[in-house]
Write a structure and sequence with these properties.
The chain is of the alpha+beta class. Helix content is 19%, strand content 25%. The strands form three sheets. Strands 2-1-3-4-8-7 form a six-stranded mixed sheet. Strands 9-10-11-13-12 form a five-stranded antiparallel sheet. A hairpin with a 6-residue loop joins β5 and β6. This is Diadenosine tetraphosphate (Ap4A) hydrolase.
C-alpha cells in the first residue's frame, strides 16, 4: 500500500460526499433485512444514511470524528461502516476495526463496505477541495456477503462468538463458555482473563496460534502493542485504575502455562498490595524491591 510522502491523513473527511438518496451499501443491507435493533453508522460522513434510515423507522446513531464527533457511550446490535476504510492509512484502519468491535454487542453484527473500483492508491489532490486526500484498496478477513465491480460488503462478528469452542484456533476458545471480547483487529483480539489478578485484567492474543512471543512476525507484534493502547483506554474509562502492569510470559521457565502467545494488561489500584515497589521485577518475589 503506497502512502506517498505525506506522513498523516489530515483531510480524510473531505472524501465524504453530498447525497440525496440512501447509499448503495445501505440499500443492500436494508433489502436483506440486516438492520436490526440499535444501529450505529460509524464514520457516517455528512449523515445522509442516518437521516434517511431514521425517517423510515430505524434507530440509527451517527458517529463521525469530524462531522458528528460525540463518541458513542453504549453498545449496538448492528454497526455499519461504509467506504471509511478506503480513505484511511493502515494504522487508522486498524483503529476503526478496534473501535467497531468494542462498540458491538456480543451477539451483534457489523457491516463494512469497501470500494472495489480504485485504480490509483495513495495521496492525490482532491479536485474540489484542493487538498491531499488518500485512498487505497482494502481486503478484510471477514465473511464477504456481496461483491460487484465497484463494492464489496463484509459481515463481521466478534471473534470469540464466531469461533466459540474452536480449540484449533486457540486454547482460549476451548469449551462452551462465552469469552467476552474487549476489542479486535485483523491480527489480534482481547478478552478478559478467566482468573483476573485485579478487576479488568485482560489478555491480548494474536490470532495466529504460536506459543513463543518471539516467533510472531514484527507485524503481529506491532498489532498486539497497538492493541495495548486501545485496551488501556477502555480499562481506564471502565475501571479507573491508578496504574498498569503489562507483560508476557515466554516459555515454562517464565511461567507460561498456555501455549498461545498472550500479553497481560493488568490494572493496578492504590493499596492493592502492601508494597508495589519493583513492579514486574516481583516475578521473582525476593528480588522485586532492589532498594532493600
Amino acid at each position: 500500500m503506497r502512502s506517498g510522502t505525506i506522513q498523516n491523513n489530515t483531510y480524510s473527511h473531505l472524501t465524504a460526499k453530498e447525497r440525496d438518496t440512501i447509499s448503495f451499501p445501505a440499500r443492500i443491507i436494508k433489502e436483506r433485512q440486516l438492520l436490526k435493533g440499535a444501529i450505529l453508522d460509524f464514520g457516517c460522513g455528512l449523515g445522509k444514511d442516518v437521516e434517511l434510515l431514521n425517517s423510515i423507522g430505524h434507530n440509527v446513531t451517527a458517529y463521525d470524528p469530524f462531522y458528528f464527533p460525540d463518541y458513542p457511550k453504549k453498545l449496538f446490535d448492528t454497526i455499519i461502516c461504509f467506504y471509511v476504510l478506503n480513505v484511511l492509512l493502515p494504522n487508522e484502519q486498524e483503529h476503526v476495526l478496534m473501535n467497531v468491535s468494542s462498540l458491538l454487542k456480543s451477539n451483534g453484527k457489523a457491516y463494512f463496505a469497501v470500494r472495489r473500483d480504485i485504480q490509483y492508491e495513495g495521496f492525490r489532490l482532491h479536485k474540489l477541495h484542493q487538498k491531499q486526500t488518500y485512498q487505497c484498496n482494502v481486503l478484510l478477513p471477514f465473511k464477504s456477503i456481496f461483491k460487484n465491480e465497484s463494492c464489496e460488503i463484509y459481515e463481521y462478528q466478534h471473534y470469540t462468538a464466531l469461533h466459540q469452542g474452536n480449540e484449533q484456533l486457540s486454547p482460549f476458545l476451548k469449551g462452551n463458555e462465552e469469552r467476552e471480547l474487549v476489542t479486535e483487529s485483523t491480527e489480534a483480539f482481547t478478552i478478559y482473563d478467566k482468573y483476573p489478578v485485579n478487576p479488568g485484567h485482560c489478555l491480548i492474543i494474536p490470532k495466529r496460534i504460536t506459543a513463543n512471543y518471539f516467533d510472531l512476525t514484527v507485524a503481529e507484534q506491532q498489532a498486539c502493542w497497538s492493541m495495548v493502547n486501545k485496551v488501556q483506554n477502555i480499562l481506564q474509562e471502565q475501571y479507573n485504575p491508578d496504574g498498569f502492569n503489562i507483560g508476557v510470559n515466554v516459555e515454562e521457565a517464565a511461567g507460561q502455562t498456555i501455549p498461545h502467545v498472550h500479553l497481560h494488561v493488568i490494572p493496578r489500584y492504590n493499596h492493592d498490595m502492601e508494597d508495589p515497589r519493583g513492579g514486574v521485577r516481583n516475578v521473582i518475589p525476593s528480588r522485586g524491591n532492589y532498594l532493600k
